Amino acid sequence: MALKIKQYNMKGMINMTTAAIYARKSKATDKGESTENQINRGISLCKLRGWDYTIYEDYDVSGKTLDRPEFTKMMKDAHEGKINNIVCYKLDRVSISTGDFSNLIKELDEIDVAFISIKENFDLSTP
Predict the structure, then answer these.
(1) Coil, helix or strand for 102?
(2) N or C, which terminus of the chain has less Cβ within 10 Å?
(3) Residue 53: is it exposed, middle or buried by C-beta count within 10 angstroms (0-12/13-18/19+)?
């Protein structure tokens, strides 16, 4: 289990819940949800739950692999205990491979990080 780092919010109070908002768009086209829209939906969820958040955004990067710059940085932060939840707009923003997604959920469970997908109402942060 990862060591949880105490994080403080703007008011100096200990914040025990910090989310990573992950957004990805594979191509610079008008099709699909913009990363801006994905991020705004994630921010709305975090505000609703009273969570601080950090944004990770991969643009013009395929979902065929988990080897993406911001995704890798986010996972490093998760392993270092800097985040408690990963929030994304849709499951396929994280991975289009069911095998990679399944392995990711197992990895997050091992380090006590919940995963939330807004569009599919997939929320592992609650029982």
Answers:
(1) helix
(2) C
(3) buried
pLDDT score of 60: 86
Which residue matches tokens 């919940």? 114
Q: Is the pLDDT of residue 14 over 70?
A: no
Per residue, the 3-state secondary structure of 50-78, as one string, reads CCEEEEEEEECCCCCCCCCHHHHHHHHHH
**pLDDT, tens digit, 9 for 90 and up, residues 42-83:** 999 999 999 999 999 999 888 888 899 999 999 999 999 999
In this structure, what token pair is assigned to residue 116?
């939330």
Residue 33 burial class via C-beta count within 10 angstroms: exposed 0-12, middle 13-18, buried 19 and up: middle
For the whole model, what pTM was predicted?
A: 0.82
In the chain, % helix, strand, coil (3-state, to 5) comes to: 35, 25, 45
Phi then psi for residue 72, to 5 deg, are -60, -45
Q: In whole angstroms, what separates CA 62 from the centre of its chain?
A: 16
